[in-house]
């Protein structure tokens, strides 16, 4: 669907706000970028065709405004107690990024969005908070971040098991991936950028597949006739790649993070991350096996005939990159 001129304008200012936050030399400039990003995303998620978009926009605005107010409040403690100010800044950034234990708003907001808006919330909207968090961690050693990593891993793994709505499953999946990304931030900026890049590609490809299938519930992804076997296989490989199952593409960044965490002697945190990854693979496999093996021609939810011919090869290559080019493992590592 072509974008309107207003959507192009707001998306441009959203990207500008993200760029301003990442490149700012002061916390005031970073706060301005976060506010510009917030005020640009609200019109993008407001839609007349979706009755839940207004509720999602209001929830998102209130939570992000709370995070911004905490950033402003932390500025008053900069001179008296730098440790308290840094802790408040970290809490605000974790709240804005949707990491546990401040994740309560993320699944409910995701449930009221369309898939193209879900992609923006899962990828672009995490760039500025995570970048600012990485700047903060390199200057101050915080103990709240390891606790947030463990909480995000457990919440993302356990919370998605009992879900049947695809957008909520993707929300808890994103919370679990947040744990891996924050662990990468603790190691180095290069590892974080590597993991985040792979996560953006794979999660966007899964959301694009669900969008073309008009699937919002786990039962919707089995409503394909046997003739659409390529769509079944594409959904199967994409979900396993998002789960980080070797030798698909999603395993490459996890392999790098596992090796770096072993080298840094972060064994307890790594054990929790690996255990949570096994739990996430459970609901990924539940969706993937449903998409691959079950066909129900009785209900046709999808109004789109098929995914475009140029999109299919690119999605296949993104999610099977590790399988098709295993030599890249040795190059990256």
Automatic annotation (TrEMBL):
Keyword Nucleotide-binding: no
GO cellular component: mitochondrial inner membrane
Function: Core subunit of the mitochondrial membrane respiratory chain NADH dehydrogenase (Complex I) that is believed to belong to the minimal assembly required for catalysis. Complex I functions in the transfer of electrons from NADH to the respiratory chain. The immediate electron acceptor for the enzyme is believed to be ubiquinone.
PANTHER family cross-referenced by the UniProt entry: NADH-UBIQUINONE OXIDOREDUCTASE CHAIN 2
Compartments it resides in: Mitochondrion inner membrane
Keyword Methyltransferase: no
GO biological process: mitochondrial electron transport, NADH to ubiquinone
Highest taxon of the lineage: Eukaryota
Organism: Penaeus californiensis
E.C. number: 7.1.1.2
Membrane protein topology class: Multi-pass membrane protein
Family: Belongs to the complex I subunit 2 family.
Main localization (coarse): mitochondrion
One Gene Ontology molecular-function label: NADH dehydrogenase (ubiquinone) activity
Domain NADH:quinone oxidoreductase/Mrp antiporter transmembrane: 24-80, 83-279
Catalytic activity, reaction form: a ubiquinone + NADH + 5 H(+)(in) = a ubiquinol + NAD(+) + 4 H(+)(out)
Keywords, alphabetical: Electron transport, Membrane, Mitochondrion, Mitochondrion inner membrane, NAD, Respiratory chain, Translocase, Transmembrane, Transmembrane helix, Transport, Ubiquinone
Protein's recorded name: NADH-ubiquinone oxidoreductase chain 2
Transmembrane segments: 57-78, 84-106, 143-162, 193-212, 233-252, 264-285, 314-332
Enzyme class, spelled out: translocase
């Amino acid at each position: 669907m072509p974008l309107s001129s207003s959507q192009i304008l707001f998306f441009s200012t959203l990207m500008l706000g993200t760029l301003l936050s990442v490149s700012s030399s002061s916390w005031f400039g970073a706060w301005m970028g976060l506010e510009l990003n917030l005020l640009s995303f609200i019109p993008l998620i407001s839609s007349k065709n979706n009755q839940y978009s207004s509720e999602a926009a209001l929830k998102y605005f209130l939570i992000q405004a709370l995070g911004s107010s905490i950033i402003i409040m932390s500025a008053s403690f900069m001179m008296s107690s730098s440790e308290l100010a840094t802790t408040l800044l970290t809490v605000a950034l974790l709240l804005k990024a949707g990491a546990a234990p401040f994740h309560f708003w993320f699944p409910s907001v995701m449930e009221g969005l369309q898939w193209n808006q879900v992609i923006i919330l899962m990828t672009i909207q995490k760039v500025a908070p995570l970048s600012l968090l990485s700047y903060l961690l390199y200057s101050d050693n915080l103990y709240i971040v390891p606790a947030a990593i463990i909480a995000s891993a457990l919440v993302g793994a356990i919370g998605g098991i009992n879900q049947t709505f695809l957008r909520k499953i993707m929300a808890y999946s994103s919370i679990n991936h947040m744990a891996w990304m924050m662990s990468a931030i603790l190691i180095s900026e290069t590892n974080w950028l590597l993991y985040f890049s792979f996560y953006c590609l794979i999660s966007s490809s899964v959301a694009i597949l669900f969008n073309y299938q008009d699937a919002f519930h786990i039962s919707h992804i089995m409503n394909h006739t046997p003739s659409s076997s390529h769509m079944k296989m594409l959904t199967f490989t994409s979900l396993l790649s998002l789960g980080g199952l070797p030798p698909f593409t999603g395993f490459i960044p996890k392999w790098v993070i596992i090796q770096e965490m072993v080298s840094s002697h972060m064994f307890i945190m790594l054990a929790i991350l690996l255990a949570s990854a096994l739990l996430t693979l459970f609901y990924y496999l539940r969706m993937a096996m449903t998409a691959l093996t079950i066909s129900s021609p009785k209900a046709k939810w999808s109004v789109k005939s098929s995914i475009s011919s140029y999109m299919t090869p690119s999605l296949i290559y993104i999610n099977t990159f590790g399988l098709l080019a295993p030599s890249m493992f040795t190059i990256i590592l």
